[in-house]
Amino acid sequence: MLRNKEFRSIIIKLILIQVIFSILIFFIMDKQVDKLKEDFIERDMALVGNLLSLDEDLEDIIVPYFTKHISLENKNLGEEALEKYGYNTLLNKELHPIFQNNNISLMATLFTLFLIIPILVIVSNEYKKTYKKVSNVSTAAEKVVDGDFDVYLKEDGEGEFNILNYQFNQMANRLENSISTLKKEKLFLKNIISDISHQLKTPLSSLIVINHILNEDENMNMETRKDFLEKEKNQLDRMEWLIINLLKLAKIESGTIEFKKEKINISNLLDNTLIALNEKIANQEITIEGMENSIIYGDENWIQEAFINMVKNALEHSRGKVKIQIEDNPLFTNIKIIDNGIGIKNQHLAHIFERFFKVNSEEKSDSIGIGLNLAKLIIEAQNGSISVKSQENIGTEFNISFLKINN
């Protein structure tokens, strides 16, 4: 409780008020006791004066009774005499002549009231401060509900309200992040749907035209029909490849894929990559240089997918030669894929990994433009990096880097 500033504040103020009133009551009661003393002495003086007015010779006998110790025998004798007139210790103080003019009870009552009033004021003010803090939290919560995440509650110091403010700020930040993530996912889904729709439009149009020709021309010779069927198959294959790879992109970008953490032998990886691209390699010269037994770390299936796209891109843009170099240094394993194609212009290098980006080229007019984008996403999702450099009419070099793992 003491760590709460509000609790400490009210306790300190109440103790301070109590101390002040205790000191005041001490001085006032001391004054009242002095007044009682004076009243009793004046009463004793009046009594002695009345007795001496009857007989002045009684002074030596009477005065010692007021200034010295009184014997128990004389006390009892006086008590018996006064008892006859109802004057004893049970007498109501309001009937006693001295107390009739004394206001001790009234003063005690007034001081009690005066003590209650500041206590009520202090408690009231402290509760107002507490309710204000509760109101601030309530107002901030309403703003967050309305989408205003710029609100911030002070969380300096200790106490329950500071803890509440800290937790509220954390909650607001998490809600903002969650809403931001939902918006990004919504935009991502919208873009994916738009991309799929846009990319499928061309092959679907071609399929519709081909299908219409095949249905309308009943006299078409078999050779021409086979040619149209082959074109139709190519368009269907292209659509299948497009949809599969767009779904892969969507999974990676949405973070729904949990990549494995395993050792991958570069030699085996490249062998499997070339086997998958066997048809593309025809009439092409591929050379591999470097330490083929090097090891990288990641998900082999997905990294092989990235390498297939990278090598496929090099084969499609080369002019007959593709070279793969494996280089090790104390920190990284680098795999370079180099072709001897027409190269990429400098203004296009910054966009080469963007989805659906295509460099205008007669050699690659059927390119869709997602292979390099998919490869980059796969590699970077597994703590790798990829870069590119190119010279026109000389060729292009892609450099893939992974943290080195020793055998």
Structure report:
With 407 residues, the protein is α+β, with helices and mostly antiparallel strands. It has eleven helices and seven strands. A hairpin with a 3-residue loop joins strand 6 (385-391) and strand 7. Helix 1 (5-54) packs antiparallel against helix 2 (59-67) and helix 6 (160-216) runs antiparallel to helix 7. The model is unreliable at 361-365 (pLDDT under 50).
Radius of gyration: 51 Å
Number of strands: 7
Q: Count up the helices.
A: 11
SSE pattern, N- to C-terminal: HHHHHHHEHEEHEEHHEE
How are the strands of the biggest sheet laid out side by side?
A: 2-4-5-7-6
Q: Outline, from the CA principal axes?
A: rod-shaped
Cα distance spanning the termini: 60 Å
Sheet with most strands: 5 strands, mixed
Mean pLDDT: 79
In what range is the share of β-strand residues? 5-15%
Helix residue percentage: 55-70%
Return residue spans where pLDDT drops below 50 for at least 5 consecutive residues.
361-365
Pairing-aware structural class of the strands and helices? Answer: alpha+beta
Layout of secondary structure:
Elements: H1 5-54, H2 59-67, H3 72-83, H4 97-100, H5 104-145, H6 160-216, H7 222-254, E1 262-265, H8 266-276, E2 285-290, E3 295-298, H9 300-317, E4 321-328, E5 332-339, H10 346-349, H11 371-381, E6 385-391, E7 395-403
Parallel strand pairs: 2-4
Antiparallel strand pairs: 1-3, 4-5, 5-7, 6-7
Helix pairs in contact: 1-2, 1-5, 5-6, 6-7, 7-11, 8-9, 9-11
Can you tag this structure with a few keywords?
alpha+beta, five-stranded mixed beta sheet, 407 residues, two-stranded antiparallel sheet, rod-shaped
